[in-house]
Specification:
The chain is an alpha+beta fold. The chain is built from 10 helices and 5 strands; from the N terminus they run ααβααβαβααββααα.
Length: about 280
Amino acid sequence: MSYIIHCFGDSAQNAFITSLGKYTKEVTPKLLKANVPPSLVYFIFNTTLPQQTLNDYASALQVPNNHPDYDPYLAGKVLDFPNPLFGSDTALGTPVILPKKWLVDEDNREDAKLLLSKSFSPYWAFGGAAGTSIDQASSLSKTYDEGGVMIFIPAYYDNDENLFWSKFSEIYDVDTSSDGKFPPILGHNHASINSLGPQKKNWTLPCDISLTPEQRELECISIQESIYGTKGLKRLESIKEEVDPNHLFDCPGCVGYEPSKKPRKPNKKSKKKVERSSKKRRG
């Protein structure tokens, strides 16, 4: 398996390699102490990084002349990357963000390893200053601030693939029979039509994707509530209703979407309300 790291700017790759070297020296002792096999540590941090300097991003994706896998007329043209798909490549996966606090607890190590082994494409870009670099006015949930990794668990399930939902209350430190305030758990950028929350009556059981959309709405936590949490979603819905009471900007599955409310031209009363709201926010 190979990965491409794009560095932009003159000698940017040198700065990256230098930083990687410093990081290697810091983290290697920790990995060895955690009983990661030395051979694996060596393989990760001592693999040669081939370098290639290009004039621009498109140059890396141009089809060469006489390539056996492409028609001749494509020579010199730039390919799509990633390739376009008819469906989503995450349509059967649910992107859940695992809290760092749960991941680093030694009591959860085996469960964490099993979850990672059953997921695909884990996303590790959390931590650092992520929790302090925003003004708390964005829609991103607290889960992003405290996340350790985002994994994709199967949207379909059987008895061997229900580990995540069976451990739900432990992972997010919530009582599944609590006051109904569902925590934010999904990564919004990778959520698909099947990325639903669990069953409303039992948060330890996933939503059955064989249900009709109407049945899912009745029986399962919605995508939006799973992304923003019950409290966060109510906040966004109130903002939506205040700023766009006529539902001029609307889409299925979006915050505040109600099929019964068709977009209509704002009347003078609602227009004044929005203007007052805007002035209030600026003040």
